Amino acid sequence: MAYTALLLPPAARSTPWQQTALAPRQPVQTLAVRRGETALVEATRGRIWLTRDGQPQDHILEAGQRLAFTGPARLRVSAEGGGAQLRWARVRA
Questions:
Q1: Are 17 and 88 in contact (CB under 8 A)?
Q2: Theoretical Cys-Cys bridge with 85: which of 7, 25, 44, 77, CB 3.0 to 4.6 Å?
Q3: Alpha-carbon distance 39 to 68, whole Å?
Q4: Quick one: three-class SS letters along 38-82?
């Protein structure tokens, strides 16, 4: 399985929302969250598959659903089924 890295941009306190389109059959995207940060991840269109390295459960986000992940963490995301739109922000503790 191919992976593409998306490094969340540096921030003083929090970052504005970033958006990424996820095409069907596109390689899995990687989101890195640093220690002391929390990543907010939201599906804005379609369905998104999301998992966190080292944890057994996967998550499926429908449009409008959001999850938060405390770093350090490496998240893997991809479109589930058709295309999807993902947005994320990170907040520094």
A1: yes
A2: 44
A3: 6
A4: EEEEEEEECEEEEEECCCCCEEEEECCCEEEEECCEEEEEEECCC
Starting from the edge strand earliest in sequence, which strands make up the sheet with 84-92, in order? 18-22, 84-92, 37-45, 66-70
Sequence-distant (6+) residues with CB within 8 A of 40 are 66, 67, 68, 88, 89, 90, 91
**Cα distance between residue 85 and residue 80, in whole Å:** 11
User: For residue range 28-62, what is the model confidence (pLDDT) as tens digits?
Assistant: 999 999 999 999 999 999 999 999 999 999 999 99
* pLDDT for residue 71 is more than 80: yes
Q: For the domain bounded by 3-92, which CATH number is listed?
A: 2.60.120.10
